Amino acid sequence: MQKNYVIGFPRIGEKRELKKVLEKYWSKQTDFNEVKFVAESLRKRHWNYQKEAKIDFISSNDFSYYDNMLDTSILLGAIPKRFENLKDEELYFAMARGNDSCVAMEMTKWFNTNYHYIVPEISKDTKFKLNSKKVIEEYQEALELGINTKINLIGAITYLGLSKSVDNSDIFLHINNVVEIYKELLLEISKLNDEVIVQFDEPLFVKDLDSKVLSLIKPVYDALANVAPNIKIVVTTYFEHSNEATKILVNTPIWALGLDFIHGSKNFETLEVIKNSNKVLIAGVIDGRNIWKSNFQDKVELLEKISKVVNKENIIVGTSCSLLHVPFTLNYEEKLDKEIKSWLAFANEKLKELSLVSKQFFDFKLNLEELSTIKRNIEDNSQRKISSKIHNIKIQDELKNLKIFERVDKFQDRIKVQREFFNYDFLTTTTIGSFPQTPEIRENRKQYKANAISKEQYEAEIKKYIDDCVAFQDEIGLDVIVHGEPERNDMVEYFGELMDGFAFTQNAWVQSYGSRCVKPPLIYGDVNRENPMTVEWIKYAQSKTKKVMKGMLTGPVTILNWSFVRDDLPRSEVARQIALAINKEVDDLQNAGIKMIQVDEAAFKEGYPLRIENIKAYENWAVDNFKLSVSSVKANTQIHTHMCYSEFNDIIKTIEAMDADVISIETARSGNRLLKIFKEVAYKQEIGPGIYDIHSPRIPSVQEMVNQIEALIEVLPKEQLWINPDCGLKTRKWPEVKQSLKNMVEAVKIVKEKNY
């Protein structure tokens, strides 16, 4: 009896083996054969880990060299014309990363996670052609190991729904073409074994879909589920409820539905229709998005609640989504506090949790080791609730007794004071904050953390970097200067390390895109900032220049959204604790003479709920916590913020409500489309639209920047505009940064001389 199910598994490797070999290949230090060898080794290892954990339904085709949506474009033959002359790995990586003659395809967030996918490009002329090689070979590869996998595919509706129409044609005009390709693929799959499970991921179904998209569901799955009698189709959704789609899917010949009962509790509302349809329900109860150890008792109770409606024999216990979104394993966390470690479960540990929860739910006989694990689970979860590490009464009392929640002065009054205080007119030049993180700076930090060099040696190197960074900005004539952030490893981790309530891992990497991995902090307890975190470095930098030095902080919502957050408090309350900590830092900076402070909210949009009904509540507490974080400032202290990866048309009023004096945004790739939104709502605050793309090593010419600035002035008054790159410069090399910024400053001079 097969009774547990993993939606998908991480592929980067427990020691980031895939990342390392890919980067070696991209830098031409090895050939693609080594990449293939490492990939095959990882797949074998990952399948065996799941087999050893007694997982019944294990995936193939959840592995990817870069991204599963990109893999699907290759599978369907949806290749943009500029790549048509390329083949195999050259084609694949050019689509993902670009090459000398082709611009890469766009990349954006996978729903409300920190994973990015490669956005398919569709036009009315797109031709689809099956390329089944990867899907078939990986299934056979697992079969040779004695593992009969389910095959994971991105569903046709989600694939098209997340695509970009490059000619404004209706992307869903291609739905029949895509379904025909999938039918052809299913026929090939049907020849692989007596019975094959095919999982179609349709996370688009958890969003608020219009009737047109909903009307596609039944014909699509009627067609796919009738291709071959030996294929059983599973449709999985995750990250929210999918009630509208579920009510349609139960009337198609699919075998099973996978629903998320962690982040989509409203899925309970459709249990009755699932029961009446006699479909199999894959109940996602093991959290695939967070790192806290499951409470076995709670999970079994949740499953029992589900089984009061859906017949138990029709339930399979599953993960809430792919385990791609959590780190690989706790095995290498030797430095993590033992008590905190006892509260955690990463991907490998979640396999064991899934196996044990399903055994308890189905009343399987448990051996002594399993009984011991269950006993320890009860103890660890009980200990976590009462741990002195979690609760800080002082901070809880401070929050209860807060009296000021936002700035006292209104923007129209503040901005007059600020313009006079800072003595600037229009098209003021600055940067977003960070400058290149050189190998030398990284090595200096690494040596200091390993106690290989003294604090004095470490700080001397940091000061030298700041000296050079400030001197360069002075020399080229930037109006507002930054210190470059050489002391910071990451814009969230740096602050987390200096506050209570955060823990950090050695090896808990999570794939963000391609070979890019992040290591989010763990917020396990009440957040408290006891001492200043940035003041001394910013003061030192200010002492090296007569120009305005901008202080740089990360905002509470971004710190929250880029961390693994405790699950015993509402996220809004955790954000409030962080906001209070940032508030104290802002106050210390202004009291130290730093009167221009940037509080970045780069990840503000990422936290948005997937359902419209939940958005207002998120916006309210997110805005309130940003305003709390800067509520201590005086009228002549100017607050900047920065946002990236955002479409602002749907949240422009929310941005306005944040009440920052200056916002800088990514607009280099979108032209003036984003700026026009600010004009349409008569946005009053000042804006720094990024005038060049820092995600590319390309150096824009002076004339190109002149054209860009003049285009900005056509949309908004020059007095409202600041001039800056579109994001931080930490990932770039110094030569390109220096020339690009010189060109930017020169371009502003030229524009100002034209009698604007």
Structural commentary:
The chain is an alpha/beta fold. Helix 11 packs across helix 13, helix 17 runs antiparallel to helix 18 and helix 26 packs across helix 27. The longest helix has 22 residues, at 455-476. An 8-stranded parallel β-sheet has the order 1-12-11-10-9-8-6-2. The protein has a 6-stranded parallel β-sheet with strand order 14-19-21-22-23-24. Strands 15-18-20 form a 3-stranded mixed β-sheet. It is built from 27 helices and 25 strands. It catalyses: 5-methyltetrahydropteroyltri-L-glutamate + L-homocysteine = tetrahydropteroyltri-L-glutamate + L-methionine. Its EC number is 2.1.1.14. Catalyzes the transfer of a methyl group from 5-methyltetrahydrofolate to homocysteine resulting in methionine formation. Zn(2+) 1 binds at residues 642, 644, 666, 727.
Mean pLDDT, as a whole number?
A: 95
Total of DSSP H or I helical runs spanning 4+ residues: 27
Share of residues in strands: 5-15%
Strand order of the largest sheet: 1-12-11-10-9-8-6-2
Helix-residue proportion: 40-55%
How does the major sheet shape up?
A: 8 strands, parallel
Question: What is the distance, rounded to the nearest whole angstrom, between the alpha carbons of the first and last residues?
Answer: 76 Å
SSE topology:
Blueprint: E1 4-5, H1 17-26, H2 32-52, E2 59-60, H3 68-76, H4 88-97, E3 107-109, E4 116-118, E5 121-122, H5 133-144, E6 150-154, H6 156-161, E7 164-165, H7 175-190, E8 196-201, H8 211-225, E9 231-236, H9 243-249, E10 256-260, H10 271-277, E11 280-286, H11 296-307, E12 315-319, H12 338-341, H13 347-361, H14 368-386, H15 393-400, H16 411-422, E13 428-429, H17 439-449, H18 455-476, E14 480-481, H19 493-496, E15 500-503, E16 510-513, E17 516-518, E18 522-528, H20 535-542, E19 548-554, H21 556-561, E20 564-565, H22 571-591, E21 596-600, H23 615-629, E22 638-643, H24 652-658, E23 662-665, H25 673-680, E24 686-689, H26 702-715, E25 722-723, H27 734-752
